[in-house]
Amino acid sequence: MSFCHDVINVSCVKSNWSNDTRATLYSLMVLVILTTLVGNLIVIISVSHFKQLHTPTNWLIHSMATVDFLLGCLVMPYSMVRSVEHCWYFGEVFCKIHTSTDIMLSSASIFHLSFISIDRYYAVCDPLRYKARISILVILVMIFISWSVPAIFAFGMIFLELNVKGAEEIYYKHVHCIGGCSVFFGKTPGVLAFMTSFYIPGSIMLCIYYRIYFIAKRQARSINNANQKFQIGLEEKNGISQSKERKAAKTLGIVMGVFLICWCPFFVCTVTDPFVEYTIPPTLNDVLIWFGYLNSTFNPMVYAFFYPWFRRALKMILLGNIFQKDSSRCKLLS
């Protein structure tokens, strides 16, 4: 048995995985990190560079991509070493900074997803008043809330040690050790983190997308009824509306499916662990944290790769055409 620190009595135990296992884990995690960085960086460059993409919705997507890029840049590399080695080599103060930044950026990413769902609701369900309701000022308020609330919550929780409140004895006797940096929550802080970072924004997303789907379905039926009344290209129009309905259902299913698959297991374990006397293995918790990180990897694919403008922007970036004169004025939207 090997230890993270020289003082064996108070040191965390190092992982006993073989070198091949460690190499495999490092390779997989580096791949996730690079995919996260590249995907979100392309979104950031696309929205920043092309003037046609300077819309309120796209600035919200740009802000989310920035959050996810910073998560891949500032958080994931250190989490990778901790997950593979089961040791923290970067000091106790930086542990608090890393944990706070991790919670902040992960929560901010989820907040952005929630606000994007609100933006999509007005775009689909109230298109005539969309521009009046979702102005650039409203988007800036959404972005400000998405960054500030998670920052205050995360740094306040960790630096004031509110996350261990009510479970100090268990934490300092059985969890805390030199050379470790675990994310720990007591019962009340765990429920608070679950509600703030996952349940409330997740419920908003679920309710709004559920409503969007049924309003889109109703709109498709209205089109069908109009077509039946006028008997103009009935079969062809029905096919188009049904196709749009299926596409809307598929897109919303992917959005919610990716979010729930990535984050639900981690937050469920976080909120239940204190109530089952912290019997959930740390290794499982690490795996679930990385599942959560994958949401930031998939976000640019879900929210940008499905758009034709993104594919055109990607092609121009890869070919180096963005360095040509007036490339920022290129038309990406038909």
From TrEMBL:
Keywords: Cell membrane, Disulfide bond, Endoplasmic reticulum, G-protein coupled receptor, Glycoprotein, Membrane, Receptor, Transducer, Transmembrane, Transmembrane helix. Belongs to the G-protein coupled receptor 1 family. It comes from the Eukaryota. Its main location: membrane. This is Trace amine-associated receptor 1. GO terms for molecular function: trace-amine receptor activity. The chain crosses the membrane at residues 25-47, 59-80, 103-122, 134-160, 192-212, 251-268, 288-310. One of its GO terms (biological process) is phospholipase C-activating G protein-coupled receptor signaling pathway. It is found in: Cell membrane; Endoplasmic reticulum membrane. It comes from Loxodonta africana. Coiled coil: none annotated. It is a multi-pass membrane protein. GO terms for cellular component: endoplasmic reticulum membrane; plasma membrane. SUPFAM superfamilies: Family A G protein-coupled receptor-like. Residues 39-303 form the G-protein coupled receptors family 1 profile domain.
